[in-house]
Amino acid sequence: MLRIEFKSVKSVLIRNSVRNIIMARPMGRQGGRSRAPREKSEYDQKVLDVARVTRVVAGGRRFSFRATVVIGNRKGKIGVGIGKGIDVMKAVEKGVADAKKSLMVVPLKNDTIPHEVMAKYAAARVLLKPAPKGRGIVAGGAVRVICDLAGIVNISAKILSKSTNKLNNARATMAALQSIRVRN
Fold it and tell me: What pLDDT score was predicted for residue 5?
């Protein structure tokens, strides 16, 4: 700490103003730069899973991250994507971009799905059933997140397999939602 001796009243005022200037400086990594405000996306996003992936190279191990991301507008549009990156933020950004490519529209009828549907993806099996008004989302794990972001208010769902892989459960749920047919 720099110590400066001041004798007169004028010098005391200068010392106080210098102290206020030093204290007013923003702390943190930005170094005084203000960030541009980010525009609000039309989709809400939720990170389902983050996995650390290791690749063995000459001289040691290389670590990267895989993020499973679900995006939806709570009005029937939903998408699931995965992204890989050196850090978690880059992986999530790539996952959101991938999810936007795989967007689909879920047909809703009275805030639920029109009929019971079951689907399988890899080892994951999922059962989705329509629920009466006021029941809410009765589901677990990845199925609950997808139904919530899709805008399904009342649904009863069950993961029938023993698979704990959130990515496969999410893709099985997407396959189930995609297989819903609506009468014209």
Answer: 54
Q: Which domains does the chain have, with CATH numbers?
A: 44-101 (3.30.160.20), 106-178 (3.30.230.10)
Paired tokens of 113: 């799905």
Of the pLDDT bands very low, low, confident and very high (cuts 50, 70, 90), residue 28 is low
pLDDT digits (tens, 9 = 90+) for 166-183: 999 999 999 999 999 988
The answer to whether 177 touches 106, Cβ cutoff 8 Å, is yes
What's the token pair of residue 27? 């702390």
| Cβ atoms 105, 87 nearer than 8 A | no
Residue bearing tokens 């702390």:
27
Amino acid at 100: K
Of 99, 110, 115, which Cα lies nearest the Cα of 174?
99
Rounded CA separation 151/71 (Å): 11
Task: Identify any residues that bridge with 44 across adjacent strands, giving them in sequence order.
Answer: 72
Yes or no: say if 126 and 159 are a contact pair by the CB < 8 Å rule: yes
Residues in the chain: 184
CA distance 97 to 34: 26
Q: Is 33 helix (H, G, I), strand (E, B) or coil?
A: coil
Gap between the Cα atoms of 150 and 152, Å rounded: 6
Whole-number pLDDT of residue 182: 84
Helices (H), 26-140: 88-101
